[in-house]
Amino acid sequence: MTVRTWVFEAIEHIGKDGATLRDIQRHIDEHRFEELAVDTIEAALEELVGDGRVDLEGGRYRVSGRTSKEDALKKLFGE
């Protein structure tokens, strides 16, 4: 598994209230038994936000809402 996968899994597990950077770091430490540096987690979060898989609101990360098939096709091929 990659760091991105662990970070996404942590955000999913923490739930709808959103996860702070420290929450994500703690979850990975407790469930994956890995101590990741903050900059490593931040890089993975930036990629996930850039890919549209995760949203950032008020310092908390949440899994983005699901995209409908029509919206995905529009995004892929344009309007």
Topology, element by element:
Layout: H1 3-14, H2 21-32, H3 38-50, E1 54-57, E2 60-63, H4 69-77
Antiparallel strand pairs: 1-2
Describe it.
The protein is mainly alpha-helical and 79 residues long. It has one domain: Orthogonal Bundle (Arc Repressor Mutant, subunit A). 58% of the residues lie in helices and 10% in strands. It contains four helices and two strands, in the order H-H-H-E-E-H. The protein has a two-stranded antiparallel sheet. A hairpin with a 2-residue loop joins strand 1 and strand 2. Helix 1 packs across helix 2 and helix 1 (3-14) packs across helix 3 (38-50). The chain is elongated. The mean pLDDT is 89.
Shape: elongated
According to DSSP, the number of beta strands is 2
Which series of helices and strands comes N to C? HHHEEH
How many H/I helices? 4
Indicate the CATH architecture.
Orthogonal Bundle
CATH class: Mainly Alpha
Average pLDDT: 89
Low-confidence segments: none
Helix-strand category:
mainly alpha
Strand order of the largest sheet: 1-2
Percentage of helical residues? Answer: 55-70%
From the structure above, extract its key features.
2 strands; 79 residues; 58% helix; mainly alpha; Arc Repressor Mutant, subunit A; 4 helices
